[in-house]
Design goal:
This protein is of the alpha+beta class. It contains 18 helices and 20 strands. The chain has a four-stranded mixed beta sheet with strand order 8-7-10-11, with no helix packed on it. A four-stranded antiparallel beta sheet has the order 12-13-9-14, with helices on both faces. The chain has a three-stranded antiparallel beta sheet with strand order 15-16-17, covered by helices on one side. A hairpin with a 2-residue loop joins strand 18 and strand 19. Helix 3 crosses helix 8 and helix 10 packs antiparallel against helix 11. The radius of gyration is 27 Å and the shape is globular.
Length: about 675
């Protein structure tokens, strides 16, 4: 399947380069006709391994990936010939997802089995251990079946510079997460009592290390000064590091160490800083293992209108929901008249530990897991040489902190449960309740939340919105022990617009139809901030750096900023102006760098042909990226039933090419990012 990439970033990270693969329709979605399902295909023996991020890997039913060597590009076909010479019909999903009557029938053992176990799949498919099926092996007889996911290979450097590979069966861990999610979704009152064995499982720790090692934060040390490179250079390498942590967890001797706190500047707010907590690498690995086990349990309890730090969801989904609610309805214009922009003062630092642990105990009663969560919350903070013990809050920067914050703030979503869909509830029921209240003249409050940033869409008068603001402040103070910033929490008419997650959202008339619709625009402040950042990189003082270094600094900034704001109304016009300004800015920088050289020589040296009719700045095969590349795109509204990789009940929902950032390390096609 051809590669489609899309980048999406949070507003504070706009400008960072982040790519992810295109969304793929789940395997058992009933979209293929009989002429597609029954077509015969031919073998292809010149398969080559797909490159990372190429989007050519697929999923079996249930989310298990298919090895890249088994999938061809769109439009190609293939058939396996059994020993008797008869061709087998292999129904192939045109979206790159393997399907068929035998899909997903490989029975896996429970996660407590050893990492080297075959789990009953290698024998069924005839694969070799660890490497998948060879493209040159003889054809396998018998009926076709799904191919097991290839093991993820990590390497740890041993003494002498050699690498010792360690194979991780991520399919078993994903199946374990699907089971936990399914049990929690089907039984809202279910409480889990034996989760610590899953946390200490060798495969869980291996997968947690895979997540950490590919993150650039693994190069940042905690208070012990240990980084990923130092662990890899130790005798025994990564495997010995895993075994030591696993033994300490089993023996109960692991004690979380204090967090090193660092102040980082807030984007777009000069002089203001945000505290960032940096745990040790050992604590980060344990937190990641806890998150792998706990996230699917609590994901089933989160409300569909909550989008922050959740698998498969992004800031663009939250904005698409607001855009949908401001759009016209079948009965006329949107009833939303006012918008309340909520702001909780120091949300992450104000989370009450007692209330948080009460919420966790509703689902988890494993004493060892609860003890570790409490220990991470009570771990000390080392800031500029001063040591203190926190009495509230979760350290920003901790791997498990966003999950704990979502668990705590779910009470805020429950306050508006009458007007927003509840977990596992269809949209029609919440729509009926809103219509019922609207017909009787009652106000309607629709919450859209991204972590601690939220807006409340008010269908009512301004007096009713002011009354809800006071009631919300009292609710946060009494129920969550948090404070609503009355100065920053503003109530504005929807026609005047408001800024949320880096976009300017406004309700205005459409030029073609004249109806009132919601529009997403690029704020002027973001355009000015981008120009300031580019000016700082192309200032006179930077002319000493090489041209290649300047391209390396500007290209990620341009690509990330463009890919985040290309869904805005009028983005093409803004991008065109930025391109003209950028060309002039680079031209002035080169003139300052090469004083005394005429302009014709400079353009002949630094300009490259981008197309038959366009020249642009570049060096060799590398061109300076333009804002207009890719143009303006409409982000499709995906509703409230968004796949997270575990919810098989959403397999019938249509997926669009747009996709959010990678979900916990897995793209939509199930490829484990390295």
């Amino acid at each position: 399947m051809p590669s489609r990439s899309h980048t999406s970033a949070e507003p504070t990270n706009a400008g960072e380069d982040a790519t992810s693969d295109a969304a793929i329709r789940p395997a058992n979605e009933p979209v293929m006709g009989s002429h597609q399902t029954n077509r015969r295909v031919k073998p292809r023996h010149d398969q080559t391994t797909c490159q990372r991020g190429s989007g050519q890997d697929g999923l079996r039913a249930g989310g298990a990936p298919v090895p890249s060597s088994t999938l061809g590009t769109r439009g190609e076909s293939k058939t396996r010939q059994p020993a008797d010479g008869t061709a087998l019909s292999a129904g192939r999903n045109p979206h790159g997802v393997e399907s068929g009557p035998t899909t997903g029938k490989g029975k896996l053992s429970e996660p407590g089995n050893p990492a080297g176990a075959s789990f009953g799949m290698a024998e069924a498919t005839g694969e070799r251990d660890g490497g998948g099926r060879s493209s040159h092996s003889s054809q396998r007889t018998g009926k076709p079946s799904t191919w097991r996911r290839g093991a993820v290979q990590t390497a740890s450097k041993q003494e002498g510079g050699e690498e010792s590979p360690a194979l991780v069966n991520t399919e078993a861990i994903l199946n374990m997460q699907r089971k936990l999610y399914g049990w929690s979704r089907n039984d809202p009152e279910k409480v889990y009592s034996d989760l610590f064995n899953l946390v200490c499982d060798e495969r869980t720790l291996h997968l947690a290390w895979c997540y950490l090692s590919r993150n650039s934060g693994s190069r940042t040390p905690g208070i012990d000064g240990v980084t990923r490179r130092k662990i890899e250079e130790r005798p025994g390498g990564v495997r010995r590091f895993w075994e030591m942590i696993r033994t300490a967890l089993r023996n109960g001797t692991h004690v979380p160490q204090p967090v090193r706190q660092k102040l980082i500047p807030k984007p777009g707010k000069p002089g203001k800083f945000r505290p960032l907590g940096i745990p040790t690498l050992t604590d980060r690995l344990v937190q990641m293992a806890l998150k792998i086990v706990l996230e699917p349990i609590f994901e089933a309890d989160f409300y569909p209108t909550s989008y922050g730090f959740r698998r498969g969801r992004s800031t663009l989904d939250a904005l698409a929901m607001i855009h949908h609610m401001l759009g016209p309805t079948p009965t006329g214009a949107s009833p939303v008249a006012y918008v309340m922009e909520g702001d909780i003062s120091g949300c992450f630092d104000a989370i009450d530990h007692h209330l948080l642990m009460q919420s966790v105990r509703k689902r988890v009663k494993d004493a060892k897991v609860l003890r570790f969560l409490r220990a991470f919350l009570k771990a000390g903070i080392l800031a500029e040489g001063n040591f203190r013990h926190p009495i509230a809050g979760t350290p920003q920067g901790g791997i498990i902190s966003p999950l704990l914050a979502n668990i705590c703030l779910s009470a805020l979503d429950a306050r508006y449960a009458r007007w927003i869909p509840s977990p596992g509830e269809t949209v029609c029921r919440s729509q009926w309740r809103r219509r019922y209240d609207r017909e009787r003249g009652r106000p309607i409050f629709f919450l859209v939340r991204y972590a601690d940033d939220f807006v409340v869409l008010v269908s009512g008068t301004q007096e009713e919105a002011e009354a809800e603001k006071a009631a919300l402040a009292a609710f946060l103070q009494q129920e969550l022990h948090m404070e609503l910033s009355l100065e920053k929490t503003q109530i504005t008419p929807a026609t005047e617009g408001f800024e949320f997650l880096g976009y300017w959202v406004v309700k205005e008339r459409a030029k073609r139809t004249g109806r009132m619709v919601g529009k997403l625009r690029i704020p002027k402040g973001k355009l000015q901030e981008l120009r300031r950042r580019i000016k700082a990189k192309t200032d006179r003082s930077t002319t000493a750096q090489s041209w290649e270094d300047l391209l390396g600094d500007l290209n990620p900034l341009i690509a990330g900023w463009r890919n985040y704001y290309r869904y805005a109304t009028g983005a093409t016009k803004n991008f065109s102006r930025l391109d003209n300004w950028l060309w002039r800015r680079i031209w002035l920088w080169l003139r300052k760098k090469h004083k005394g050289v005429n302009g014709h020589t400079i353009r002949r040296r630094y300009e490259r042909r981008e197309s038959p009719t366009r020249w642009w700045w570049g060096e060799g095969p590398t061109l300076l990226r333009r804002f207009c590349q890719g143009g303006q795109v409409r982000y499709r509204y995906r509703g409230t039933r968004i796949s997270n990789g575990w919810n098989r009940e959403i397999d019938g929902v249509r997926f669009y090419p747009e996709v959010a950032r990678p979900i916990s390390g897995f793209t939509w096609v199930g490829e484990l990012l390295r």
